[in-house]
Amino acid sequence: MKTKITKICCIGAGYVGGPTMAVIAKKCPHIQVTVVDLNTERIAAWNDKDVANIPIYEPGLSAIVEEARGRNLFFSTDVEKAIEEAQIIFISVNTPTKTYGKGKGKAADLKYIELCARQIAKISKDDKIVVEKSTLPVRTAEAIKSILDNTGNGVQFQILSNPEFLAEGTAVTDLLHPDRILIGGETTPEGQEAIQALVDVYSNWVPEEKILTTNVWSSELSKLTANAFLAQRISSINALSELCEKTGADVNEVAKAIGMDSRIGPKFLKASVGFGGSCFQKDILNLVYIAKSYGLDEVADYWEQVIIMNDYQKKRFSTKITQTLYNTVADKKITFFGWAFKKDTNDTRESAAIYVADDLIAEQAKIAVYDPKVSREKILADLDYLKTRSQEENTASLVSYENPYEACQESHAIAVLTEWDEFTTYDWQKIFDSMLKPAFVFDGRNILNKTDLESIGFIYQAIGS
Ligand code: NAD
Ligand code: UGA
To answer: How far is the CA of 173 from the centre of ligand 2 (A)?
Structure first.
């Protein structure tokens, strides 16, 4: 019998769960969507009367939340009720890299996933479709199924893999106009019926030809593979950026030249201070761990190199700053433009800025940060998380500013860590006038105009030229 979907529950109100469910609610007004989380503060923020205070900044998101919230979109801490009522349950909880035990530093930590599975198993009284929305190691569905099928309460579960491909900063556009929706399920009639139920949800706004169905394992592995390929392009161009600096080639020109080859394509070829974000590193490390666990050492080493190159690129940037500033940054004020891992997001997870700051503080630099969306508390928490030095030392070494011009006063150098558009529109003459001389700019995102800055008097260094 075909399941009629009237209620969806999503466990995890984070960067994926929140925006994804908001878009489903917008496009499917006939379905009640409830997003639940253990984090009461986060849920309270999603429910804040002033929609500007929702916990995630994404262009276009607050308008969608405003439209659907209270109509068919709900945020709640009552996890049990939402699970009990829903026909489809998305699991969208965090799957960080393990920080303990076997696989520490590489494998995905699945404890939150398992907790969800156990809770679903305990509460469910009728048949459910459970959807892996989180990024998971290939064959995780097997473990989830085993937990769900061994509760003895006779409920039938179908597990689907439906990985999310949105990028932060463009989450709403990506969700409204996805390149594809991937749904993996069992090949049994019940599995196919579950797949169809989820296809029917997405087909409210996604053209049918963009909805791809596969077996569960292909879907799980495709998500890790997509992130690995994307990150690999960045590490590839970043590797070449150093060669460009040595040879007089310009990495932007090289990227353009190769990107015009339709087989290569122009996207994801921007050389930078290194990729950040919560997923590229974690997912590649996970892929490396899985390959190793099957004894595929060459496969593992191949992908690990993407991470090694990225770490090198971040280190290379901080070393270049120190070397250029006459081999010492001790007690020198260095201004960071940007802390987020990319523009148009307040997310700082694994941002290159954190590691560059940590290196420079180790050299006793004084860091001044201006980021339009990231708070001082978050910046310091990111540094403290590395546990390189005491909280007091970090607090004494880093100041954040609400105003970019103040952040630059009496500074020796500016380092651009995030490609926020506003940085290109500043009065750079005014900035130059307020800095110590010689005034340096290290453009870790290649967004500023070299000729303009040099004509003002800056010593300007970009990545890869
Ligand atoms: P997040 O940390 O922002 O959100 C996860 C939420 O789950 C947290 O609010 C946490 O409190 C909640 N949670 C954890 N365990 C819970 C439980 N047992 N019950 C209820 N709530 C629980 O994470 P995220 O960035 O949204 O990522 C979620 C998953 O999606 C990860 O697997 C990630 O790899 C994947 N992903 C993320 C992105 C991205 O852009 N951030 C994109 C694609 C895929
Ligand atoms: C990435 C993928 O693009 C999404 O498809 C995926 O769903 C997501 O990871 C995930 O699984 O979490 P995200 O990390 O949000 O999305 O953002 P990206 O636009 O991919 O940027 C990642 C990092 O790479 C950023 O630090 C960005 O500045 C950097 N980058 C990106 C470059 O240095 N050069 C580029 O050409 C592109």
So the answer is: 15
Residue 43 CB less than 6 A away from ligand 1 = no
Burial of 430 (0-12, 13-18, 19+ CB in 10 A): exposed
Ligand 1 centroid from CA 111, angstroms: 12
ipTM over 0.95: yes
Per DSSP, the residues of 158-181 read EEEE------TTSHHHHHHS-S-E
- Which of 273, 269, 285, 340 lies closest to 15, judged by CA? 340
Task: Note if 10 is an active site residue.
Answer: no
Give the whole-number percent of the chain exceeding pLDDT 90.
97
Q: How far is the CA of 458 from the centre of ligand 2 (A)?
A: 30
Counting atoms of ligand 1 from 1, which one is nearest the CA of 18? 26
Nearest CA to ligand 1 atom 6: 12
What is the crossing angle of helices 297-324 and 280-293, to 10°?
Answer: 150
Q: Are 285 and 103 in contact (CB under 8 A)?
A: no
- How far, in Å, CA of 435 to CA of 410, rounded? 4
115 CA distance to ligand 1 middle (Å):
13
Catalytic pick from 10, 28, 279, 408?
Answer: 279
Residue 129: CB within 6 Å of ligand 1?
A: no
> What is the pLDDT, as a whole number, of residue 464?
98
Q: Which atom of ligand 2 is nearest to the CA of 267?
A: 36
As a whole number, the mean pLDDT across the chain is 96
Q: Is the pLDDT of residue 1 over 50?
A: no
Strands of the 413-416 sheet, one edge to the other: 398-400, 366-370, 333-337, 413-416, 440-443, 459-462
Q: What is the mean pLDDT of residues 50-77?
A: 96
pLDDT in tens, 135-174: 999 999 999 999 998 876 789 999 999 999 999 999 999 9
Spell out where 215-346 has E strands.
333-337
CATH numbers and ranges of domains, the chain: 7-214 (3.40.50.720), 216-465 (3.40.50.720)
Q: What is the pLDDT of residues 354-405, one digit of tens each?
A: 999 999 999 999 999 999 999 999 999 999 999 999 999 999 999 999 999 9
Query: Which of 168, 172, 241, 349 should be mutated for ligand 2, with most atoms under 8 A from CB?
Result: 168
Q: Which residue's CA is the nearest one to ligand 2's atom 30? A: 275
User: How many angstroms separate the CA atoms of 277 and 121, rounded?
Assistant: 32
Give the chain's largest Cα–Cα span: 76
